[in-house]
Amino acid sequence: MPSKSGPIHWILDWDGTITKRDALETLVNIAASNNTHSKILNDWRQVSEAYMRDYENTLKDLLAQNLDKPSTINTERQLLYKIKDVEKRSLDRIYQSKIFAGLRDDMLDKGAAAAMEKGNVQVRDGFSDFMHHIQTRKKYEKRDEFNILSVNWSQRFIAACLEIANISSVQELLPSIHSNELEGIQQNTPSSGLIVPTSQHQDLIVSSVDKISVLNQLRSSRQIPIVYIGDSWTDFECLLSADLGICIRDEPMTSGQQTLADALGRVDVQCTHLEEMGTVDHKGLFWARNFEEIKRWVQRSDSIE
Fold first, then answer.
1. Domain ranges of the chain
2. Topology adopted by domain 9-299
3. Mean pLDDT (10-residue bins), the chain, 305 residues
4. H helices within the chain, ranges in order?
């Protein structure tokens, strides 16, 4: 558990955590809007359907081999490791379909701005105020660190969305975002459509296994308590590895949030509302509805030092 004094390293997921819903489809819409004579949306539908078939069949086969669902954290990790292949196959299909071929960084910037302005991408309630509070702590008091850790396909897209949300500029945000990128974007050339690691990493970030690897690298760079905030199964290992793990949950929960909740339930990890911290004997994870609740927790911690 983070100390009530001293700096905190905040590591946040993007899709469904900072945003109210998954923003990957918005990337596809940006590609389609910049290539009106193509069949991008139809290709995307086929890629999505192929992914779901692959995911469901792979999960069914893996569970059949083990005759039951995981019941320990270690066996859950093993299952997540094997699911990684499904994600990699999906990226291959995306490249073969050329959905993102020809996209440029300026198209991503304009598309992100339009998506934010139209409400197609929305940050969660309280996120901007939360970030401004963290930036104040980082600058004047606690020297907090902040990173985004995401399986999203475009680091540039995430930064462009956050610039519109008045968090910071694209160029200032990019180094703090650990995700993937469309080949060519970092070189300011039209993309081939291939999803590749950013210049920060040698490997793609597509699964829980990849995310925990990056989290451990970030931990080694500055050894201060980590608060990880996520919403889905790909956040499983990071949530458990952090000094404090916070699950974002809607009411009712989304399918991704429910999948994570089911996984935590299988391995007997309790998840208590963040406002109950300090009033219950609890060694598991916590959950919050939005960043307003998380900011209130930070402010309470600051005020009782």
1. 9-299
2. Rossmann fold (3.40.50)
3. 75 98 96 89 97 96 77 93 96 97 97 97 96 83 88 98 96 96 96 96 96 97 94 98 97 97 95 84 85 92 59
4. 24-33, 40-66, 73-97, 105-118, 127-136, 155-164, 170-173, 208-221, 236-241, 255-266, 291-303
